Each structure stands twice: as structure tokens, then as C-alpha cells.
Amino acid sequence: MLDIQKIRADFPILSEKVNGKPLVYFDNGATSQKPQVVIDAIAKYYQEINANIHRGVHTLSQLATDAYEISRVKIQHHINAKFSHEVLFTSGTTHGINLVTNGFASILKPGDEVMVSSLEHHSNIVPWQMLCEKTGATLKVIPMNEEGELIIEAYDALLSEKTKVVTVNHISNALGIINPIKYMIEKAHAVGAAVLIDGAQAVPHLKPDVQDLDCDFYAFSGHKMCGPTGTGILYGKEEWLNKLPPYQGGGEMIKEVTFEKTTYADLPHKFEAGTPNIAGGIVLGTAVDYLNHIGFHNIHQHETHLLQHATKRLLEIEGLKIYGTGKNKASVISFNIDGIHPYDIGSIIDKLGIAVRTGHHCAQPIMNFFCIPGTIRASFSFYNTKEEIDIMVEAIKKAKAMLS
Ligand SMILES: *Cc1c(COP(=O)(O)O)cnc(C)c1O
Questions:
Q1: Which atom of ligand 1 is closest in space to residue 229's alpha carbon?
Q2: Are 28 and 202 in contact (CB under 8 A)?
Q3: Ligand 1 closest atom vs CA 94
Q4: From 255's CA, which of 15, 102, 296, 345 has a CA 20 to 30 Å away?
């Protein structure tokens, strides 16, 4: 069992007050808090080894380059990629997805089909729509049911030899539903389609194994897994990364440049134009070490208890409805209270020091499906406690009494 109080002491912000009240941070789905080791590692980089990477012969440049590449290998092992050059540093999930959709612009043709799920974040919808507009390919949508689960029979029926790419999130940010991606990947491959997994909400809760999943791409952000903002990873299978054209042109991504013709660098540098977020990339490795030190098995156990406790306590409130009631769920709860706008509840409990997200969670199609403007979303991390959940439930009861 985790010693939660000891873990909480690693996160300085958790002992801050907000609006005069102890902070209860339940907006982990938007971004996680950072442990002191991560905060310290950022300062240490700038204090001790700051230099540009892959360029200088000088000692600091070498030290920075080594630290950056060590972090890449760390992340390779974390997600079990076959090669470290299949691990691309990005600025986040959004960047990773756009890198892939940009590449597919030179592959897709009119009549081809791109399949997205109805549970996606806008950043895994809009780039694919732009790709379809550019290429004349058709966007197909995998439908969902009232429990917030994808309808897998409908997915099977939509797949055909026209399907070139399937994209789906590992875990839905708006509802917390865990999708059956291994099955979906296998089915997509059977018709020859490539699969991108949006892992932004999964990596804080579990350790993905990209070889076991056999996905072609897996994108995630560093800032939702205790790492710095402006960091992320795109995993891509070597054969796909070789096939796709570069995303951006610039320094560091070339072999040779003349005005007649430029040849591109080998992987991973082909996709890493310009000076990257060096400190961020290095410190993302620190965050991954920190999470592994806590252990994903322990994280899963604790978060499962939090989810069960919160579900039970919230359902005590009359008129409260939870969205995303499927069985396979991460520690995210989306809900509304009859006749009350989510924003009003969110504002009142904010005054009591409680941070939740309200709104459409960058997933408007899900809100349209349920015919609601948005929800209140409480998303829990391993550093949250049952006591904090009780504080939230009491605050919501108070807000409800004020508003009804
Ligand atoms: C947060 C999130 C994104 C976008 O991540 P950025 O860090 O903003 O690029 C995409 N998909 C899902 C499921 C998310 O939760």
C-alpha cells in the first residue's frame, strides 16, 4: 500500500491554500502537479549543463546531448518500444497527432477512409478533419452507447479495405472510459489500416506496452504525467516513420542541404527540426522515473479505491447523474446535477479550494451525444485521498443547496 501522506509531501503545491482553503486538486485530467524532484531537475539542468544539443563539440553540449538521449532511452524502455529512434520528442499530444496527420496527407487519396471514435478529444478530431479536407478522404465515426462505451460491433462493420487509418484514445478524457484498443488495433490491421492511439489520459494511470498493443503510433503529453509542460512523445513504428515525410523543415533534421536538394537525417532527427525543449525532454525522464518508483500497480490500486469511493459518495446526492458508466474506467468522473449548470457548481466549490474542470472538456461531440452543455469532471491522481473526496462531496451538497 502507498504511503499517501509521504507522497503528498513530494508535491509542494498540495500544501498550498487556494482562496484561503487547503487545495483539493481534482483537475489532474487537464494537467498533473509536479513533484519536487521534477522541479529541481529543471533548475539543475539550467544551473549545470545548459547548452544546445547535437551541435557543439564542447563539453556542456555533450553533457546536454547525453542527458537528452538517456531520457529518450528511458522512455523507450518505459513504453517498451523496440528502438529508441521510434521515440520522438514533441511538445505534447497535439503536436504528435499533427505530425502524423501531416505525414498522411501525402499517402491518402479520395475514396480512402479515416476512422475516428466518437469519444475523442478535439485534438484527435480536428487534425484528421483537416487531413480529409486536404486529401478528399472520408471521415467515419465509431459510435458510442449510453454508457459512454464505443459500440464495437459498429466498429467492426465500418472497417473495410477502404479504411487507411483508425484513431482512438486509450482512455477518454471526458468520461474516463478505457477503450478496448488491443482488439481494435488487431481488427484495423486485418484490413491493412494503420492505428494511432491517443494516450494522453492513459500514461498517468498505466504503463503502455506499444509492442504488445502493436499500435503504429502512440502519442502522449508529459505534463499530465508529472512532467513539464511543452513536452510529449510520439512513438511510431520504424517502418511508418521511414514512410512518412518530415513534419517541419529546419536545423537538426537534415543530412545535407543544397539549394538543389536536401536530404533528411535518419530517425529520430528527421522529425525533430530546430532546438527542442531540451530541459523538458530531460526532465520528462525524471518524471517517468518518479512514477515508476511509486509503481503503476500501486497507482492503479489506489486510484481504483478513489474511483469507487467517489462514485458511491457522489451518488448519495439527489439528482446527480454520472456520465460514462461503462465497466472499464480510469479514475475520472464526469457528472451533472439536475437543473444546475456545471459552471455554477464549479465556481462555488472553487471558493472552497476545490479544483475541478467544468465544460465540454474539449470533447463537444460527447456532450452533444448526451444533449448537455458540459459536465463537472473530477479526475483523481495517486496523490489524492478519500478525505479530499469527502470534502468535495460536502462542498457540492452545499453548492446544490445554494443553487436550488
Ligand atoms: C489532454 C489531451 C490531449 C491534448 O494534449 P495536449 O497536451 O494539450 O497536447 C489530447 N487527447 C486527450 C485524450 C487529452 O486528454
A1: 7
A2: no
A3: 9
A4: 102
DSSP codes, 168-210: EESB-TTT-BBP-HHHHHHHHHHTT-EEEEE-TTTTTT----H
Which of the four pLDDT bands, split at 50, 70 and 90, describes residue 56? confident
Tell me phi and psi for residue 90, to 5 degrees: -130, 180
Beta-bridge partners for 256? 263
- Is 172:201 a contact under the CB 8 Å cutoff? yes
Q: Does the structure show a pLDDT above 90 at 1?
A: no
Measured from the Cα of 223, ligand 1's closest atom is 7
Q: How far is CA 283 from the centre of its chain?
A: 17
Band (264; pLDDT cuts 50, 70, 90): very high
CA angle (238 as vertex; 223, 202 as ends), nearest 5: 30
Residue nearest to atom 12 of ligand 1 (CA): 200
The single residue listed with the C-alpha cell 530546430 is 274
The rounded Å distance from CA 258 to ligand 1 centre is 38
Is the CB of 221 within 6 Å of ligand 1?
A: yes
pLDDT in tens, 57-76: 899 999 999 999 999 999 99
Burial class (CB in 10 A: 0-12, 13-18, 19+), 107: middle
Does the pLDDT of residue 55 top 90, yes or no? no
Could you give the percent of the chain with pLDDT greater than 70?
100
Task: Please report where in the chains the cell 471521415 appears, as a residue.
Answer: 139
369 CA distance to ligand 1 middle (Å):
20
User: Ligand 1 centre from 124 Cα, in Å?
Assistant: 8
* Residue whose grid cell is 544546445: 52
CA of residue 221 to ligand 1 center, whole Å: 7
**Residue 146 scores a pLDDT above 90:** yes
Catalytic residues: 362
- Please tell me the distance from the alpha carbon of residue 131 to that of residue 55, in angstroms, as a whole number: 34
- Over residues 289-342, the pLDDT tens digits come to 999 999 999 999 999 999 999 999 999 999 999 999 999 999 999 999 999 999
Distance CA 179, CA 384 (A): 24
